[in-house]
Write a structure and sequence with these properties.
The protein is α+β, with helices and mostly antiparallel strands. Helices cover 55% and strands 8% of the residues. It starts with a helix and ends with a strand.
């Protein structure tokens, strides 16, 4: 028999997996928080719900990513040894120092000069997508998620990497399928989907690296090849390192940014007062984006592993035990935010949507750039945009994803 707190967690996650729980998990998170900052997870390990505790873990070198070594120790037949999970363990977000330091320095992406270079591209892509949205809205309602949110991230990162436009739909679909291996507790069928998508992505980016080595250009992949040739004497190992960088960039740039763009738009259309404020006060845009990230972040769970025995929130944690930082719950922690269930862009911003510490998201500046560009153009061009119905949500707990966002003009 599991302890009472684990039984409670089993019931809680059963509800999170329903359509109702996926549409609005926050009342369930509130119940979880009522049990304390650290609660036993149903499958082992612990759930952390307090904001300050989550923030401290992310900033501490005592908490590690579940890297390849840790995953191998979990034994065969577990989600951690699935082919897609093993592949993800070699990408930047799953590395620990010193390898993490080495790979992160080699990436060299999204500094100010790169963002200035990409900014014009984002403007042009956004304008074209909103032109298409406008045409659809003339005939009635349109799916903002499909026409804009799904298209802007793949077009932005795809053009930056120099990928063929014809490949964008395929890469977007593969990304949606691959992310199941990063879910909190994926089913066997979800892992099979993720394994197949990961294998296809490996083939795609391995061939891309091979082609860029033979035909280098002024693009990030070519620059990474040149960088890794100075870091690694074995050319095959250098090319594999570049492959993992390219894979990481695609996955990181698409899934969570797509969700941010749709969620930001949904929240502002639901809270019309702030939408109307943006029409006359566009400088509110960045704060509205940060509040969207707090109120309903794209990633609701971040996992870490203890590097040593410790006590966390009064609970003993053993070395190599995993904790799941419940970001969606922590963002509604009343000890951190007054009236946390109220959407308010004017509040003092604080969130961990982009993680923290040495693993702070490399793509955060690009995600913010895309969101700010879209929000500015959207409010200028479609001030009378309205929500037709609330969206349906993908069957996930850790990674939020609206399946549609139907809008119209009034």
């Amino acid at each position: 028999m599991p302890p009472p707190d684990r039984r409670f967690a089993v019931s809680l996650f059963s509800r999170l997996r329903t359509a109702k729980g996926q549409a609005n998990p926050f009342p369930i998170y509130e119940e979880l928080r009522s049990r304390g900052d650290v609660v036993a997870a149903p499958w082992g390990g612990y759930l952390v719900t307090g904001f300050d505790l989550c923030d401290r873990i992310l900033r501490s070198r005592d908490w590690l990513e579940p890297d390849a070594r840790w995953r191998e120790q979990q034994g065969s037949g577990t989600r951690w040894t699935a082919p897609s999970s093993r592949e993800m363990s070699r990408t930047l977000p799953a590395l620990n120092p010193p390898e993490h330091t080495r790979v992160r320095r080699s990436a060299g992406m999204f500094d100010r000069s790169t963002l200035r270079e990409i900014g014009g591209t984002v403007e042009r892509i956004t304008t074209g997508l909103l032109d298409n949205l406008g045409e659809r809205l003339r005939d009635g309602e349109a799916d903002f998620n499909a026409l804009v949110s799904e298209e802007l991230p793949i077009a932005t990162i795809g053009q930056w990497l120099g990928l063929p436009t014809a490949d964008f739909p395929r890469l977007r679909k593969l990304t949606h399928d691959q992310v199941f291996t990063q879910e909190l507790l994926p089913s066997a069928s979800q892992l099979a989907i993720s394994d197949a998508a990961t294998a296809e992505l490996r083939t795609y980016f391995t061939e891309l690296v091979r082609h860029r080595r033979a035909h280098p250009g002024e693009d990030p992949v070519s620059r990474w090849i040149a960088t890794w040739d100075t870091l690694e004497s074995d050319r095959d190992k250098a090319d594999e390192a570049v492959y993992y960088l390219a894979l990481f960039v695609l996955l990181a740039a698409l899934e969570t940014t797509t969700t941010l763009l749709s969620t930001m738009t949904l929240l502002l259309l639901e809270h019309r007062r702030y939408w109307n404020q943006l029409l006359v006060q566009p400088d509110l845009g960045p704060a509205a984006i940060e509040e969207s990230l707090r109120y309903d972040p794209p990633a609701h769970v971040i996992s870490r592993v203890a590097s040593r025995d410790c006590v966390l929130g009064g609970v003993e944690i053993r070395k190599d035990e995993m904790v799941h930082l419940m970001v969606g719950a922590a963002h509604r922690d009343p000890a951190k935010h007054k009236d946390p269930d109220v959407f308010d862009p004017h509040r003092k911003q604080a969130h961990i949507a982009f993680s923290g510490g040495i693993h702070y998201c490399l793509g955060a500046p690009l995600a913010r750039l895309e969101a700010q560009t879209l929000l500015r153009q959207l409010t200028e061009r479609f001030p009378r945009l309205t929500l037709v119905r609330r969206p349906a949500w993908a069957p996930r707990v850790a990674f939020r994803r609206p399946l549609n966002l139907d809008v119209a003009l009034t």
